[in-house]
Amino acid sequence: MPDLNALTDAAELFAAVEPKRAMVITAHPDDCEFMCGGTVAVLTRGGWEVDIMVATSGNKGTKDPQVSAQWLAGTREDEQREAARRLGAREPIFLGMHDGGVQDDDELRETIVHQMRRRRPELVITWDGFRPGFNHRDHRNVGRATYDAIFPAADDHLYHPEHKDEGLQPHRPQVLLLGGQAGTGTPDFTVDIRPVLRRKVRAVLAHTSQMRGRTEAQLLALWKQRAAEVGETDPKRVFAEAYRRVIFAR
Ligand SMILES: [Zn+2]
Fold first, then answer.
1. CA 139 to ligand 1 center in whole angstroms
2. What is the whole-number distance in angstroms between the Cα of residue 187 and the centre of ligand 1?
C-alpha cells in the first residue's frame, strides 16, 4: 500500500486508492455538480463507482409563488438523478431533510455512518464545514457531520452497534476531500477537470429549475469571470476543482 500522504497529484492519488469506490455527500441537489462534478467525471472515467448522497431535496429557494415545496423537491430529485447519470455516477441517495434545516447532530452522523458501512467508499468528498464564514449552514453542517462520521464513528464498532444486525461492518475511508475552496479557500489539492469540462457543464445544466435558461457558453464565461476576480487566469487552474485533503490512517 503506497503512502497516500506522499501523493499530492490527483491522478497519482486516484490511481493508488483501492477499491475504487467514492461517495459525495452534499446538502442540496446541484451541490455535487457545482462543487465536484468534474472530479466525479474524472473518477467514473477511471472506473470508479461513485455514490452521491444528498441531505435535502432542495425544497426551498424559489421566488415563484406558484411553486410548492413538494413539487420543487420532486423536480429537483429528478434533476439530480439526470445529473448523476450524465456524470456516470450511481442512482443518488436522498435523505429527504428539509432545505435549510440540516442539523449537525447524532441523527445525521448516524445516517452517514450507516451509508458508509453499507457502501464502503475509500474516497469521500463533502463541503468544508470548518472554513470560517463558509456560506450556507446546510453546507457547513453536512461537512462537519461527514467529517465526524468518518472519524471516529464509522470505523469503531461501538458506535451504532445495531448496524451489525444488518451485517454491516466498521469502515474507514482512506481519503476525504473538503470542497468549496475556490477563490478565498485554502486548497492544498486540485483536480484538473479540463478533460471532462463539457461533462461537468452538462451535469450542472441538468438542474434546469436552477439554471434560469443559462447556456453552456454562459456558464463557462461565468466560471472564467469568477476565477479572474480572484486573479486566476491560468486555464489549468481556472478549470480545476480545489479541496483540502485529509488522509486517514488505517
Ligand atoms: Zn447547496
1. 6
2. 19
